[in-house]
Amino acid sequence: MLYYDHIQQEEQSAYLRSLQEELDAERKAQEEASEAEEAARQEDIVNSSFYEKLDKGYDVNILIVGDSIGATSGASDESHRWTTLLNSYLAEQYGGTVSLTNVSMGGNASYAGYSRVMKLDDDIDYDLAVICYGQNDSTTDFPLYYETIIRAISSKYENCSIISILESSQKDYTEKMVTIQEICDYYGIPVADTIEPFSEDYDSYTDDGVHPNDAGQAIYAEVVEKVIDQGVYDIEGFPDYDIEPVNANVVKFENFRYIAADEFERIDDTTYTIAGLSISGILGIDYSWQSGDNVTEIYVDGELFEAPTVTFNYDFSQRHILIVSDDCTVEDQIEIVFSSKEQADAFQGLIFSWEK
Question: Phi-psi category of 224—alpha, beta or left, where left has phi over 0 and alpha has psi -120 to 50?
Fold first, then answer.
């Protein structure tokens, strides 16, 4: 009896081991299938454009770069911002998570947009960029600076689609708006036209004559939504912006170096200096305008190079990024002297751009 009991125990143990092995093999096969499915999904995500990702319910990353309208000035609160409305619509309509980054700066022109894009270092691979400029730009060189934004986006985010907004504040298809249309047509970039819908009753969509109020913010969101919906309907693939520039001078902005304020030595309340710097190219500055007169003296290798002067007739400060010179060569040292401690405190950095 003991012998037969022993045999039965061994047979039962062998059966249980076999059953466990089958279960382990089945679980492993399921895990491998799940991993393969996830790998295929991740590969599909990588190989899908912004519009394809939306259509498939994948998560997307959107970048907004613009002026005060891009920054949603005029909205009564966050819930009424056109970017918030756009985010909510896309998430509800297509099912994925929409992550939105807005680097717009009120009062600034297109060169600031180029700089903001080139400086951006957040490890996000953007699927869509929305450009919103024109109100603060001068007609002179606007085509050049606007195109630098497109080239900056395409150089940093190879598979990023772009939408350009025609700003309602222009009230008509001005020379700058026509320029945007022509550049976008060349690159195959869709345009979100807010001028036409605002023309129906302009004053009801803005409280200050420039910035969209809550009703105007809703129009901005709707116009961009329609452009995106059309892109999804057409199932547009990856964009191809790797073509010759419209303006040959765009190549002067291909290389970019941002020298942050903390790389300088602050020698007193109003003065910054940096030595051992050998660089040449287009010089820009990132700083703030304080209420009143703002004089900024820039010395290159001991000689006064430029002294940009601005009178800011507002009771607040505002950050600006602008070009100081289109040809600056530094052999060793730059010194910057601001007209006040408040202006010096708000200094962000210098920018150099040059051709590769």
Answer: alpha
Average pLDDT of the chain, as a whole number? 93
The pTM for the full model equals 0.89
Beta bridge partner(s), residue 95: none
Distance of CA 59 to the CA centre of its chain: 17
Residues near 206 by beta carbon (within 8 Å), at least 6 away in sequence: 74, 168, 169, 198, 212, 213, 216
Q: In angstroms, what CA-CA distances link 125 with 55, 101, 317?
A: 19, 11, 32
DSSP string for residues in 44-73: HHHT--HHHHHHHT--EEEEEEESTTTTTT
Residue-level pLDDT at 15: 75
Query: DSSP state, 212?
Result: B
**pLDDT of 162 higher than 90:** yes
Which range, 11-20, 63-72, 240-249, is most confident? 63-72
> Among 286, 291, 290, 270, which residue's Cα sits nearest to residue 339?
270
15/10 Cα distance (integer angstroms): 9
Q: Mean pLDDT highest for which of 12-26, 127-141, 232-246?
A: 127-141
